[in-house]
Amino acid sequence: EKGGYDHFMLKEIYEQPQVIRDTFRGRLLSDQGLIKMAGIEDNLNKFINAKRIIIAACGTSWHAGLVAEYMIEEFARIPVEVEYASEFRYRNPIINADDVVIAISQSGETADTLAAIKLAKEKGAFVFGVCNVVGSSISRETHAGAYTHAGPEIGVASTKAFTTQITVLALIALRLAKAKGTMSQSDYLRNLIELELIPEKVQEALLENDKILEIAKIYKDAPNCLFLGRGFNFPVALEGALKLKEISYIHAEGYPAAEMKHGPIALIDENMPVIVIAPQQNHYDKVVSNIQEIKARSGKIIALVSKGDEQVKNLADHIIEMPNSTEALTSIIATIPLQLLSYHVAVLRGTNVDQPRNLAKSVTVE
Ligand code: M6R
Asked: Global pTM?
């Protein structure tokens, strides 16, 4: 059942090229420059006329929501707010009939997310679901939706659900951008073509596995760990930290790299591993200066870099290479090494990787 892998989590990490492809198959028609998703087409006016999109989710799905916020705002220029479902449901939020609420959930059974949906519906909002489990409570409770095609996710730590959520949300953001005319045709087409290449690029990122195992051996006993990223990779840093804490029980924090100066930098000394997501893109120079600041305080730097990067290589203690994509879609690729790193650290520490202590696969009580 684990298909020759030691754990479901590892199997699910390696399934990502396939399930990402399954998720865009039939929806992404890059040669025609089209995106076709029934749930969006049928409700296109609601999205286009939305004054605001509110995303409600928990855990890893909330991180996917943050990536979606950046994509929808940049591509389609619609204001987005991302809410923890548990906070949203209890704080008497302002919801109007011209708001669109997107609920994201792998299981489709998360109690807080379900309650947030019910509240949004009561207030007259249109509610769209992004779920993995077909026929789940959330998929039934929402007005419309789009499934991720990740297949069953058994490991408690979410992996393939996250990258397929980003895939669906990228399709939505691009479709809305096209409808609103907010993105240049060349940027739009480039993202379509790059999305189609993501499965092979994820496959390429997986080739760093042996190197990541060696890095895991060096840092497996660290009591703390920081994850830093900027832009679309800030949510990826949060997700990397969540993955490490949940399966290895190492205390980890994710931050936008520039926030380091506002507090976390005080933690950095020669015992602190800092994982920095540093692809050669928009924020590259800024991230390089963040890396220099860490180095000046003797922090141990593990950097995720674009293939062939030389500058960061000279500064970091370890580099993990990955292929480049568009700024937005690199978030999918950068997730892969972080999943593998947590996995190996957890295995080396002898924890129950697929069934970490105190956690359940779906949180059906609040
Ligand atoms: O099924 P959902 O996506 O609604 O679940 C949300 C969270 O409970 C879930 O992502 C949790 O944080 C995972 N264990 C993270 O790996």
From this structure: 0.97
